[in-house]
């Protein structure tokens, strides 16, 4: 079927965000697990506050221009992440390239729901007190991932995600984010206050907020670029898909700034939770997943009302995981509805099942069948590497090249004043593509510094 002829998904009034619902949903897609454990890890490794300031610069230089381009393409095309390029005025080849931004989020979702399931499991364990009844937190985590329970919680995460997306844009995704994003903000503030009032927390706050520019290197700049790119959910079709549901009266410039600010504030508060807590209890913040599921439970067990705060922390993680998972699922749902004319319910049912099946090898490779490794990487890690380090930068590069060089109606679609449009176009043509290529070369391992 010719991509111009796909009419299965009409994007009618029932498939529209309200202004506030759109911004909250877009922030929900950006607010994920990465900023809670990856951001502290790389911040600790690459210079603390100096790295955080560099991250802010990269967010403005590469993140916001690409973010706005994706939203504009989606709204102009009113199609899926693949066909919006064509419907906005591009050649057929852009639709083929756009398919990368449908494949990538589906791959990511297949292993993302696994970790989302872990957070749900740990929230239950924490509130029940079982998490803190045994001080061997490493053994608990290893025993959990080696058993069958991760599969059950993976199913729970898939079902919750699918149920929300099946309810549609206004009745499902928007309503879900309007409830959970404010709840997430409350949890962030409560946990931040608890963290910065811990004994010895000042050292963690100082590390995070007092810059030491001597620690910055060329590699830290590339890592900051990569995290700024990924933390905004760029290159994975989410913002193109969400852009298709945005009202024409919505200012994309204002929305871009709001989404960027939301992502930045979340990263800031996450740092003010993780660093004071880790410094207070003598924990190395550069531990990746083990920090969240092994080291931090040990810290919560040692603090007053640790059961409560530990439970709230994992509820926070679960909310962050599910808001992102919902966004990831909507991308292929939008495509299948448009491409084959499936109903939303049918699309959710089929793709949720396929997501679970695709994710099974990743789940099994982390404990039950450790032999699912290739070239020294577990199947889970390979899925993460291919999708996050290769497909996402490629998706972002496609967006910048299309919007910067081939999109003739970009000015009208963006809705920017002449001066700001020239700045935006300059960034898309001469700055963002170079930086995205550098990120791609670095994350794929081809560029070593």
Q: Ends: how far apart?
A: 46 Å
* Helix content, binned percent: over 70%
Number of strands: 2
CATH topology: Amino acid/polyamine transporter I
Largest sheet: 2 strands, antiparallel
Range of strand content? under 5%
For this structure, what is the CATH homologous superfamily? Amino acid/polyamine transporter I
CATH architecture: Up-down Bundle
* Strand-pairing-aware structural class: mainly alpha
Residue windows where pLDDT falls under 50 for at least 5 positions: 1-8
Our count of helices gives 19
3D shape:
globular
Number of domains: 1
CATH class: Mainly Alpha
Radius of gyration from the alpha-carbon trace, in angstroms: 21 Å
Q: Summarize this, please?
A:
This protein has 449 residues and is mostly helical.
Overall description:
This protein is mostly helical and 449 residues long. It has a single domain, classed as Amino acid/polyamine transporter I (Up-down Bundle), CATH 1.20.1740.10. It has 19 helices and two strands. The protein has helices spanning 19-30, 34-45, 49-77, 84-87, 92-98, 100-128, 137-146, 149-166, 169-196, 201-209, 218-231, 238-243, 252-280, 289-302, 306-340, 344-365, 379-406, 410-414, 418-443, and strands at 373-374, 377-378. Strands 1-2 form a two-stranded antiparallel sheet. β1 and β2 form a beta hairpin. α6 crosses α16 (344-365), α8 (149-166) packs antiparallel against α16 (344-365) and α16 (344-365) packs across α17 (379-406). The longest helix is centred in the C-terminal third of the chain and has 35 residues, at 306-340. It is globular, with a radius of gyration of 21 Å. It starts with 18 loop residues before the first helix and ends in a 6-residue tail after the last helix. Residues 1-8 have low confidence and may be disordered.
């Amino acid at each position: 079927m010719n991509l111009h002829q796909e009419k299965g998904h009409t994007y009618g009034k029932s498939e529209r965000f309200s202004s506030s619902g759109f911004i909250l949903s877009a922030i929900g897609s950006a607010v994920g697990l990465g900023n809670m454990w990856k951001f502290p890890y790389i911040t600790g490794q690459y210079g603390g506050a100096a790295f955080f300031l560099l991250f802010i610069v990269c967010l403005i230089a590469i993140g916001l221009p690409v973010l706005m381009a994706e939203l504009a393409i989606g709204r102009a095309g009113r199609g899926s992440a693949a066909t919006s390029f064509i419907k906005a005025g591009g050649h057929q080849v852009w639709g083929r390239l756009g398919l990368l931004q449908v494949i990538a989020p589906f791959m990511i979702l297949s292993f993302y729901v696994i970790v989302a399931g872990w957070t749900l499991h740990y929230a239950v364990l924490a509130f029940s007190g079982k998490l803190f009844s045994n001080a061997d937190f490493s053994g608990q985590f290893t025993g959990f991932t080696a058993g069958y329970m991760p599969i059950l919680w993976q199913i729970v995460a898939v079902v919750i995600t699918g149920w929300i997306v099946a309810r549609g844009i206004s009745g499902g995704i928007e309503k879900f984010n309007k409830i959970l994003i404010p709840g997430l903000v409350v949890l962030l503030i409560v946990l931040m206050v608890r963290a910065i009032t811990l004994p010895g927390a000042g050292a963690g706050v100082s590390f995070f907020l007092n810059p030491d520019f001597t620690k910055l290197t060329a590699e830290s700049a590339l890592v900051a670029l990569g995290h700024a790119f990924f933390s905004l959910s760029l290159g994975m079709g989410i913002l193109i898909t969400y852009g298709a549901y945005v009202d024409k009266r919505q200012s994309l410039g204002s929305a871009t700034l709001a989404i960027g600010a939301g992502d930045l504030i979340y990263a800031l508060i996450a740092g003010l939770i993780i660093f004071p807590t880790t410094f207070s209890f003598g924990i190395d913040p550069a531990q990746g997943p083990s920090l969240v599921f092994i080291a931090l439970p040990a810290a919560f067990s040692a603090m007053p009302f640790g059961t409560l705060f530990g439970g709230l922390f994992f509820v926070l993680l679960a909310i962050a995981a599910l808001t992102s998972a919902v966004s990831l699922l909507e991308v292929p749902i939008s495509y299948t509805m448009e491409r084959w004319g499936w109903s939303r319910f049918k699309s959710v049912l089929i793709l949720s099942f396929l997501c679970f099946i695709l994710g099974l090898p990743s789940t099994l490779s982390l404990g039950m069948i450790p032999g699912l490794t290739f070239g020294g990487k577990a199947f889970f890690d390979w899925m993460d590497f291919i999708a996050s380090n290769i497909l996402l930068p490629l998706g972002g590069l496609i967006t910048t090249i299309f919007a910067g060089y081939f999109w003739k109606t970009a000015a009208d679609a963006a809705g920017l004043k002449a001066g700001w449009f020239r700045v935006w176009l300059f960034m898309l043509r001469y700055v963002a593509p170079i930086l995205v290529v550098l990120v791609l070369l670095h994350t794929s391992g081809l560029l070593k510094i």
